[in-house]
Fold this sequence. Notes:
Elements: E1 3-10, E2 16-24, E3 28-29, E4 37-39, E5 43-48, H1 50-53, E6 59-67, E7 71-78, E8 81-86, E9 94-97, E10 105-112, E11 117-125, E12 128-138, E13 143-148, E14 154-159, E15 165-174, H2 216-219, H3 222-231, E16 237-243
Antiparallel strand pairs: 1-5, 1-7, 2-3, 2-4, 2-6, 7-8, 9-14, 10-13, 10-15, 11-12, 11-14, 15-16
Amino acid sequence: GEGASVVVLNPTAAEAVVDIVVTTEREAVRPGPLQGLVLPPGRAKGFDLNRFALGAATVGARVTAAVGRVSVAGLGSNEGGLRATIGSPELRTRWFLPGAGDGARSELVIAAASAEVPFQARAQGTEGQIPVLEQDTVQAGAIRTFAVATEGGALVAEAEGASGFVAARRSSYRGAGVEAPEEPAPAETPAPQATPSPSPTETMSPSPGPSPSPTDGAARGGDRERQEREARPPDEAVDRASTSGSPVVATHWVVPPATGPHGGPSVLQIQNP
């Protein structure tokens, strides 16, 4: 019942050509339809990852611009709504992931590139610093997900060595109050077939790319999905939020609004690592 996409934006005045590698905890694949993708100047396009990673709990994408420069974001969808994280243009040895004592259950996602990354993680909150992962390792080119206790709030993930990595945090809140969508669940659709890479003249969708409606992978088995949703225990956690964190601390920050134009509760989280 979840959808995952990567959104690639070419904000420059020159054409860009990108390759996308899809990584799960099982494997890293280089799908033919996601190689040699051409983005005209000033255009964005979303690429569905479900067809290449269906059933995976965590999926990452490594985007390489063979020509030009691009900006990248990840987009996820489920019955709780949408979540988006900005991609990282570089690897760092330390990541700060702010949070608050909001009763959420957190998962720490670590992605390595060309080198093995031994690392540790600690929580920071009102009780000070508490180790949540004494030491673990992510193999070169792999991605792993770790359940961590973060009742205190913020996280710090730090490599034990010079190898950089990328970190993200996924928070799950209890399912109470998560309503089923008003629209009927989509009918079952056949599995998507492989298609050739888009041509330079293909119409590009505006950012954030894919429609908020479920992707191909999420749309399959609509009736079964609805039945599972109705049978879900009321206190089961539902994935509601993600953050890609920051590799730096600074004296000044510009914080975009966390809510839409119709408002809603908003909290400013400040972490002193």
